[in-house]
Amino acid sequence: MTQAKIGSNVTISYIGTLDNGRIFHSTDEHGPQSITIGADQVFPALESAIIGMRSGETKNIVLSADDAYGARRPENIISVARHAFPVEKNIKVGQKLSIEFAGGVSRVMVVSGVGENDVTLDGNHPLAGLDLTFALKLDRVE
User: Fold this and answer.
1) Global pTM?
2) Where do the domains of the chain lie, and which CATH numbers do they carry?
């Protein structure tokens, strides 16, 4: 039986959970994921854990925040004057907004606070700062 190695095309199934047991992603809902080992399609630490596995093998893999989406970065949180948004725009905590920065670069940010005079926007990935656990099964190696 072939082992997964750099360059292998593999299909994986997994349930991804946080420390509190909350599922953040599951291939049960979204279908198995096909990746090429070494093509930077998933976290390098996850690829490393898959290398050497065989079809049908299962493994629990824990990725630290640093090996996943990284730490939450305070510089990714900004405060914007409320008047910078259209008056008719009803802004709510948890809402995603596409914000355009200088040079035409746009970024999706989440509203984390709404005050009378300002709006706080968080550009960190929602899973930044969190350790991730994958209950993983290697379905196929090609």
Assistant:
1) 0.84
2) 9-70+127-141 (3.10.50.40), 74-122 (2.40.10.330)
